[in-house]
Amino acid sequence: MTAETDARIARLLHHRKAGLSLGEPVVPPISVATTFHLPQAQGAAHYYGRSGQPTWDAVEAQLSILEAAETVTFPSGMAAITAALVCSLKAGAKVMIPSDGYYVTRLLGRDLLQVYGVDVVQVPTLEMETADFTGFQVIYIETPSNPGLDTVDIAVLARRAHAAGALLIADNTTMTPFLQRPLDLGADLVVAADTKAPAGHSDALFGHVAGRDANLMARIREWRRQSGSVPGPFEAYLVHRGLETLEVRLERMCASAAVIAARLAAHPAVKNLRYPGLPGDASYGAVGGQMANGGFLIGLTLADAEVAEAFLARCPMIEQATSFGGTHSAGERRARWGDSVPEGFIRLSVGIEPVEVLWSSIAAALADLQA
Ligand SMILES: *Cc1c(COP(=O)(O)O)cnc(C)c1O
Q: What is the pLDDT of residues 205-251, one digit of tens each?
């Protein structure tokens, strides 16, 4: 972590203090009000719950400190992605999206954007650095990609997108703003599923869009009001609480992932191992540059579907569930959702269990397979 990141963490933890009067609660209230005292129409901080409310304000203040940008929150990562794309495209426009990124983003391209007259072009993450951007209004990236963990150089893509007159939107879910800040590297918008590591306890769906263009962010805020794509106050509270411990959780998760990835890479049962923090990994070049470290996700390929399922079933420290970034380590075979990965590919999300307990359980499950 850099000194600048440290300063952001400290500000995040104390962001409410300056606004508190004597006797007010230290943590933000879960404000459930749909309507606000309004004897006159002008000058109130809030007037109707779909337009804005105090618990959103609290979590948006935290995220704005982390992103160093204006932030608008949404009820899920997909709601944030929809807002960013709808507000930067119109009928007749062209958008490039990764063919190997989060699969629901591709479905959104096919079933919403395409239907409304946007030309959606899919390109593998690794080919985006050299793809021709002529005629595109938006280049949309995911780095490292979920689940393949391939990376693109964000600064290079931002320069190339801008030269072609396009905006660059980056899905930063796999890294979080603690580990990677695409806006600092030239991206126009960041989108993220705070459902994952930021909320961190597998109990809240949430998302956000951040950006430094005031006009574009105003359109995104207005989209939330008009579409009604509004986060719940309880979820906003949970994400506010999660963000306070995100950096500490990430430290454990990423350190454990580095240890476990190195040991898995050397294991005879493992056919292929992807972890950006491993020297020799195709994404290693991005680590220490745009990525603070290798993250907490590992792509692990075992012999085939049957072996991968048997491993997951025998490993008590890996929750067999979709999603990632939670306190519990979790893993699943991604081919079961149709991702274009080998049948034996497991996306492993390393949690906060003590690393040697986690490793013992993984090693025992792998040994069982060979017995
Ligand atoms: C999970 C995920 C999303 C969607 O987030 P939801 O909160 O589930 O809507 C988007 N992008 C990536 C990379 C994800 O992993």
A: 999 999 999 999 999 999 999 999 999 999 999 999 999 999 999 99
Q: How far apart are alpha carbons 15 and 63 in whole angstroms?
A: 11
Whether 347 and 325 have beta carbons less than 8 Å apart is answered as no
Q: What spacing in Å lies between the alpha carbon of 125 and ligand 1's midpoint?
A: 17
Give dist(CA 63, CA 243) in Å, integer: 8
Domains and CATH numbers, the chain: 3-243 (3.40.640.10), 247-370 (3.90.1150.10)
pLDDT at residue 18, rounded to an integer = 87
Alpha helix stretches (DSSP H) within 164-232: 176-179, 214-227
Mutation pick for ligand 1 pocket among 74, 100, 146, 349 (CB with most ligand atoms within 8 Å): 146
Q: Are 282 and 294 in contact (CB under 8 A)?
A: no
Are 224 and 236 spatial neighbours (Cβ–Cβ below 8 Å)?
no
Q: In Å, how far are 99, 117, 296 from 121, measured between CA atoms? A: 9, 13, 30
Mutational pocket test of ligand 1: of 102, 190, 209, 322, the residue with most ligand atoms within 8 Å of the beta carbon: 102
Peptide bond into 268 cis (omega under 30): no
* Separation of alpha carbons 270 and 46, rounded Å: 55
State the pairing for strand pair 138-142/119-123: unpaired
The set of residues, in sequence order, having a beta carbon less than 8 Å from that of 230 and lying 6+ positions away, is 49, 50, 74, 75, 224
Distance CA 364, CA 275 (A): 21
The CA 205 to ligand 1 mean position distance, Å, reads 9
- Which residues, judged by CB distance below 6 Å to any ligand atom, belong to the binding site of ligand 1? 76-78, 102, 142, 146, 171, 173-174, 193, 195-196, 205, 207
Spell out the residues 6+ positions from residue 340 whose beta carbon is closer than 8 angstroms to its own: 99, 100
Q: CA 234, CA 212: separation in Å to the nearest integer?
A: 27
Please indicate, yes or no, whether the overall pTM of this predicted structure exceeds 0.90.
Answer: yes
